[in-house]
């Protein structure tokens, strides 16, 4: 028995020697390369960058930006792509000191309000935000050099009225094209579904998108709510709708409105005190007499009809309003 135990111990000792030697060698390797190991960890912890080409030249941006300052008007698109900016210029058109109603619900409480993206940018505020990437729009082009000194800056070459182009550019810049395409596919499928339902409910009646202010009437054909009604929902445009100016519509008179005389009207007005008030021309329109007027505010148009989350919400609201009256 003793002989057996001695043989076993000898065997175990022989087996352990290589393991101990291997362990010592590994420790020496790690110890000898300690500085290299720490350096490797430091390098690994640093953000990775990639270089993109834009109109201003090449820009080196983080592969996974953590602190985006958006003054291009693309905050809702960023959210749909999985980025939460630390600063935004998507403010409420009725109150530039606050974000739009939708963004109030989506952005963290500490998000910096840089002021409306189409107005002057507060440079000191951007510096204090300590961004690792700035998205700027066409209206900040003159500030490019100044912004680039704060953080890598990408100029988004599309303004608020070019939603799809702006969305695609931002998605390409951030390596999120598949996510953007998936979102648009879902949106377009929903718009097509609602459009067919509304066309049937209204018996293919035609539509006009009108804005009434205290001084004038504007008939829209392409942008904002009009882009959604005619482009997304694909509802018929009233015959005689004038060719739009660059901003997407045309200023007209009450007489011009009577000549249009659509079956349905999407009306944008921030106040009852407008040119339509107590107008016999307005009250005589067939859409008004039939009760086929769907009211929005101009503020809602600008807050929602040009951005991803807003368009999605407004699409549902318009469909609900139009279908609701069609069922009467």
Automatic annotation (TrEMBL):
<comment type="similarity">
    <text>Belongs to the bacterial solute-binding protein 8 family.</text>
</comment>
<keyword id="KW-0813">Transport</keyword>
<dbReference type="InterPro" id="IPR051313">
    <property type="entry name" value="Bact_iron-sidero_bind"/>
</dbReference>
<dbReference type="Pfam" id="PF01497">
    <property type="entry name" value="Peripla_BP_2"/>
</dbReference>
<protein>
    <submittedName>
        <fullName>ABC transporter substrate-binding protein</fullName>
    </submittedName>
</protein>
<dbReference type="InterPro" id="IPR002491">
    <property type="entry name" value="ABC_transptr_periplasmic_BD"/>
</dbReference>
<keyword id="KW-0732">Signal</keyword>
<feature type="domain" description="Fe/B12 periplasmic-binding">
    <location>
        <begin position="66"/>
        <end position="326"/>
    </location>
</feature>
